[in-house]
Amino acid sequence: MSRVSDGKAAAPFGAEPAGVLDLAAEIAGGIAPPDPAVTVAARAAASHLIELPAGQLRHTIEKVIMGKALGAGLQWMHEAGVLAAVLPELDATVDFSQEGGRRHKDVWEHTKQVVLQSVPSPIVRWSALLHDIGKVRTRVMLPDGKVTFHRHAEVGARMWEPIAKRLGFDKPERHQIRFLILHHLRANAYEPSWTDAAVRRFDHEMGDHLDDLLELSCADVTSRRPGRREEAIRNIEALKERILAIRALDARVPPLPAGLGNAIMETFGIPPSKRIGELRKLCEDAIERGELEERREADYYIEYLRKSGAA
Hints:
The chain is mostly helical. It has three domains: 1-86, Hydrophobic Seed Protein, CATH 1.10.110; 99-252, no CATH class; 260-308, no CATH class. Helices cover 61% and strands 1% of the residues. The protein has a two-stranded antiparallel sheet with strand order 1-2. Strand 1 (140-141) and strand 2 form a beta hairpin. The longest helix is centred in the last third of the chain and has 25 residues, at 228-252. The N and C termini lie far apart (75 Å).
């Protein structure tokens, strides 16, 4: 029987604080939130939740953020003191404004919406849940009323580390979520004016995290302005299409000419060795930075290596 419908629901929380988390998962699953007396009882037991095994904490919170009514489940976790006990970094975002005088710009309300809009992947949803925790420590209110959060992604990524330990995430998962929090703003900064080299560099830097990052970036658009979300998602989709097109082109015609290695050996008198690969890599990096054009004759890159003194 659900704790919500049990007339003695409040009693077990003292002896079984895990029941508070179980109730949050039930609410996220779609049942109605409990009456205030149950919430009060849960609040009294919430401080003991941190004593539970890390894996149990993580598993139950994950059930909440994967639930069909996750917004209600997360809200009850706040009201019952669960977030303050287990995820104080997230609880600090409640009623924390992103813009002066605009309630819908509350970081907490934004976060719940982002999680709801995320694909049902645990890694993406954990990243969505915690992507803006760094805003609390980085908010600056300017004289003109504007608000800035410079480097909040970097701060949030650092804040994630003790959370990951607290909830028992293994190393690969910890790295994945940290990466997504750290880079969650990158894709939304895309503009059609990016060069192919810039798009290629973005693709290389995101690596195996690219798909999850693009999913998080789409979910991170919660604007109520008509058409803004659709426009932002189209922009991210355009970025993905360019990445795939550049990958296909590079597979057919690599950015550097095939004979560059031989030209490097002949020009600089270098025998076959890993040094040839290092010099090619210098040219590749210069292309990604926009310092060199791609798909030119070997002499063009030889001249660059000569002028740079690298060879």
